[in-house]
Amino acid sequence: MSEFPETIPRMRASLLASAVLASALLLPASPALPASPAGTCSGVPSDFDGDSRADLAAAAPYATVGGHARAGSVTVLYGAHAEKRLTQDSPGVPGEAETGDAFGSALAAGDFDGDHCADLAVGVSEEDRSRPGADGDGAVQLFHGSADGLRAGKMIDAGDLGGRRGPDRFGAALAAADLDGDGDDELVIGVPGLGGGGVGLYGLRGRGPRIIGQDGGWVGQSAKETDQFGAVLAVGDFDGDGRDEIAVGAPADTISKRNGQGSVTVLDVHRRRATLLTQDSPGIAGLGEPWDSFGAALATGDFNADGRDDLAIGVPGEGLTDDQRAMDYGDGTVDVVYGSRAGLRTATSQAWSQRSLKGEPRYFDRFGAALAAGDLNGDGDDELIVGAPGENAVQVLAGSRSGGLTRRNNVLITGRGGDFGAALATVPDRGLVVAAPGDGRLTLLRGDTRKGAYPGVRPAAARTFATAAGDALFGYALTGASSAR
């Protein structure tokens, strides 16, 4: 299967300079913390340069680098400084840019070395192809934060986790998680081409490096080559014990002979426990059907402010209208499962679609193809942002302390073409970033402080703050609060 969406054409141009400096991200209404002294870091999520302001990284995995098509690049938009472009040809980065590497196929921000500086992990999922058209072995490039910004670190691959290198697309998905509760982040790595798929753990203290397979050990699921277990990752502390669990999407998982129904498995690494979620799980609305792609997008947030993370699951292939046909993209829905002392409880889950919200469902909308969460209105509970790139739209639902997400005051934000809404990120104290990778454009919607069941963003406040050549897939992956703890 192709590693990038068929709706976005193959890339042929190099990444251009951003149209606006990253200082456009700053929110005057939200004063920043005092800048950290030289040589120290702030501990602010996604603050790569220690100035106490969250930064943003945006990937362009099809950017041309040094004449190599689709080699890939990542642009770091520092909160108070000029941008910086990272590639495999950057100083200190091992290896070199090569055609088709897709540097930036995934991103994650977290404190991986415990120095309170945010670090950046960059997936290079198509590194080392055995032949043209084959999947790559894959690798992950680490960059370490400092008072001077990101500096190149180690490149890791399956061999560093005790595995065998092969065409497994190591690094196709990434997440930062505190799996052992020690305050430092571990790096969670998707390996969707490993048999039915797998998840790599890097940096977990007291335990050797390893890859958890879909059909191995305590996970114990049946695995098919096309399941894509590990193609999507999210992390959250769903039971409130101070340790994160991992939600693993397998959007092409075949269950009960229904091809592409999709699944999500929650891995509790500490307890060595795996919980399978599908649309056939008790309490989850809907019915598992072929090509629903349950788990094609994931996001975690505390939507009811109870101190435990909740999980939003995208089902962009779900058909709601009469025009739906087999293997069409889908109208799309989103299921939300709430955390509790015992972990995620499907009995209190919610289902959302444009039938119950502003907007009109259509069979090509792909509502739920991208998800993000963050406190956009500053009242202590998170909002849920849902991308519908087939409609070039984003839906924002407000969180509340009485019941979690609510349809009250939900807002539909539409943009120009280029799959507006295909990637999303919330940036602390700045607002919502929406990518249109097909056009190479990032749009910022600044947060609006207003307590209660309000989405925290206004369509009229949307502004383009960074652009690039559309063929580079600029904005295909973003860092933000959803991927940094």
UniProtKB/TrEMBL annotation:
Asked if the record carries the keyword Aminoacyl-tRNA synthetase, the reply is: no
Give the matching Gene3D superfamilies: Integrin alpha, N-terminal
Q: Which PANTHER family match?
A: GLYCOSYLPHOSPHATIDYLINOSITOL PHOSPHOLIPASE D, PHOSPHATIDYLINOSITOL-GLYCAN-SPECIFIC PHOSPHOLIPASE D
Signal peptide start and end residues: 1-34
Protein name, please? FG-GAP repeat protein
Name of a matching Pfam family: FG-GAP
Output the SUPFAM superfamilies linked to this UniProt entry: Integrin alpha N-terminal domain
GO terms for biological process?
Answer: cell adhesion
GO cellular component terms given for this protein: integrin complex
